Each structure stands twice: as structure tokens, then as C-alpha cells.
């Protein structure tokens, strides 16, 4: 059996990267729905104002924005055909 040491080194570096960032950032997650009828909004844009962080909702209207530095943010929700919404003072805490 021949072991490729470069392969193991890559896996080791990959795992180290995950531990370095563990516990230093938080996440935003939620669901975007049509308030009038309760249906999920697929493909709505969710942006953290003042950053490059954001996501689009999935088939069930869910969104996940990972690796958000702790702090207080405004979150902007946009979708074609709907009025934009901004929610202020959203607090992000460190994931434990």
C-alpha cells in the first residue's frame, strides 16, 4: 500500500482551517414568506447591509448566511414584484 502524504497534508490543512474559525463568527438563518398567503418566497435576496454577505432563499424560502462577524446589522430582503424590507438592529452572536 502506497500512502500519498500530500493528500493527508491537504486534509490536515483543511481541518485546521475549520478549527481556526470555529467560535469566532455567527450565522443568520430564517424563512421568507408571502405574508398574505403564507407561501415561501423562492429566490428572494437577503443581504447584510454594509457587507458583501448575503444569500438567496431556497425552494422552501429558507436562507442561511454563515461566517457573519458578531455585531448588530440591518438586513435587507428584496425580490422582484415585492416591496423591499429592511430589518434593523439584528444581533449576531458567536456560534458556540
Automatic annotation (TrEMBL):
Q: Which SUPFAM superfamilies match?
A: Carboxypeptidase regulatory domain-like (SSF49464)
Q: Which residues form a coiled coil?
A: none
What InterPro entries does the entry give?
CarboxyPept-like_regulatory (IPR008969)
Q: What is this protein called?
A: TonB-dependent receptor plug domain-containing protein
Species name: marine metagenome
Amino acid at each position: 500500500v502506497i500512502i500519498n502524504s500530500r493528500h493527508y497534508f491537504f486534509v490536515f490543512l483543511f481541518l485546521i482551517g475549520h478549527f481556526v474559525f470555529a467560535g469566532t463568527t455567527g450565522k443568520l438563518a430564517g424563512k421568507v414568506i408571502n405574508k398574505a398567503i403564507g407561501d415561501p418566497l423562492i429566490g428572494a435576496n437577503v443581504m447584510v447591509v454594509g457587507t458583501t454577505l448575503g444569500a438567496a432563499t431556497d425552494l422552501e424560502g429558507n436562507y442561511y448566511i454563515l461566517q457573519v462577524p458578531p455585531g448588530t446589522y440591518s438586513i435587507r430582503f428584496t425580490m422582484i414584484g415585492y416591496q423591499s424590507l429592511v430589518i434593523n438592529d439584528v444581533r449576531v452572536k458567536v456560534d458556540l
